[in-house]
Specification:
The chain has 91 residues and is mainly α. It folds into 2 domains: 1-41; 43-82. The chain has 2 helices and no strands.
Amino acid sequence: MPNLADDPEYRLALRQADQAREDFAILFDELDCVKLQFSRLPPRAWLSRMWSIGFASVWTLLAVIVLLLARVIWALLTRGEVYRAPQPQAA
């Protein structure tokens, strides 16, 4: 039976297998790092809730701005005259 340890092609195969084993270990370490980063991501429900709150906040802010502008425009159109209830006449 031939001695495979002395065969140069067999040594090359062993080196390649050892290098492949190291490469796989590095890949698995990187995969664990990616898994850890994914586990830190916020859940979908939380993201949806934050998006809804932000969307509602923007529309509320826009509504307030429109109402304030309407009030300013109304005041300019009426030349600053604000409606006041008639005062009762003293007899």
